[in-house]
Amino acid sequence: MYHSSDPRSTLTASAASPAAAYGRPELVLLHEIEPSVSTERGSHAWYVRTSHLLVGYYELVAGDGLDLMRALGDRTIVVPHDGESVAFSLREGDATVDDAELLVFAGPGAVRAATDATIIEIAAYVDIAEAPAPVNEADFAHPVPGVRPNVERRVARLNKGVHRYPLGGFPTSDARFGRIFVSSNVMVNVLETEDGPRDPRRLSPHAHDDFEQCSITTRGRYVNHWRTPWTPDLASWENDWHPRYDSPSVAVIPPGVIHTANSVSAGPNQMIDAFAPLRDDFIAKGWVLNAGDADL
Description:
Helix content is about 5%, strand content about 35%. The chain is mainly beta. It has helices at about 280-285, 290-295; strands at about 25-30, 35-40, 45-50, 55-60, 65, 70, 75-80, 85-90, 95, 100-105, 110-115, 115-125, 130, 165, 180, 185-190, 215-220, 220-225, 245, 250-255, 260-265, 270-275. A hairpin with a 4-residue loop joins strand 8 (about 85-90) and strand 9. InterPro entries: RmlC-like_jellyroll, RmlC_Cupin_sf.
C-alpha cells in the first residue's frame, strides 16, 4: 500500500498466499549495546546480520582506522555523510572519499579516517571469510520462515576494480525510488536525506513475499510500524509494534511482516535499505543506477 506520489505504487502487487508462519522483526539500537570492536583511540564497529547479509557499522575518530571484513566476493561500502573524509587501502587500489559516496569492490581492505566519519559495509553472508561475530547471531540459529535461498535469485556481474558512485551525482527524481545500486548479490538503496519529519499522511505500509529488508539509520529519529499477519495458530499472533528510536540503528524485517517507517526529528534523517538477493521488481523498473556496470 503506497501513496500515489510514491514511485513504488507502480510495482506489481503481490499475489502470494498467506504464510503458515512469520519471523519476528528485530531492531538493534547500536548505541545501547557494546560494540563488536573498539580501538584505543575510540573508534567502534558493530556487526549485524540478516539471513543473507552481514552489515558492518563503523564510527571512526579522526586519525584512526579499522580493517574491513574479509569477504570472498565483493562488498558495498557507503560513506553516507558529506564532509567526512576517509581513505581506503584496497587490493584493487587506494580510494579517498571526502563526500557521500557508495563504492563496490572485491578483496581485502582497510579504512582510515581523516575526520570523524561513519562507514557502512554490506556483504553477502555466504561470502564472509572472516569477521567479528554479529551481535544478533543467536537470532539466526534457525532459518527465518519464508526466506528464499540466495542462490536461487539473480546475480549481477561487475568487472574487477573499484566502482565509485558519488551520491551527489544522483539527485532525487520523481521517476524512480531512492538511489539504488547493486554488487554481485546485494542491493543497497541510499534514501535521500530528509531535513524534517516525513509526512505521516504519505507512509508506505507493505510487505515482501520471500526476502528480508534490512534498514539502517545513520542520523535522526524514527518510528517503525510493524504488523505481523495472523495465522490460524493463536499462539503465533503478535501485537503491532511501533518503536520510536534514535540513530544509529539496524532493523531486520522478515518476509510477510507489514512495515513502514517515518522520520520524526527536525533532521537530518538518513536511512539506507539493503536486500539480498537482488530485487527483480526494482531492476525491471530501471531504478538501478549502476545497472550498466552490473550487466543487468
